[in-house]
Amino acid sequence: MAVPKRKTSKARKRKRRSHMAVKPMNLAACTQCGNIGPTHVVCPNCGYYMGRTLVETEED
After folding, report:
1. In total, how many domains does the chain have?
2. Res 10: pLDDT
3. From residue 17, how far is each of 12, 13, 23, 31, 44 by CA, in Å?
4. 13, part of any domain
5. Would 7 be classed as within a structural domain?
6. What H or E segment, with its residue span, contains residue 33?
7. What are phi and psi of 53, to 5 degrees?
8. Full-model pTM
9. Domain range holding 45?
10. Is 31 domain-assigned?
């Protein structure tokens, strides 16, 4: 069985894990209604995505 010859230092371990940080969500305004929401997702407010309405919503 393979076993490390030396202990992995804190600096080496932390450098390797530097890309594991949680990144903030990309938010953008909907082109149809202007509501702020995540990118590449159907707008939860109006159901609009990529130039067309995909989800019918109730309008009061």
Report:
1. 1
2. 97
3. 9, 6, 14, 37, 34
4. no
5. no
6. none
7. -85, 120
8. 0.52
9. 23-54
10. yes
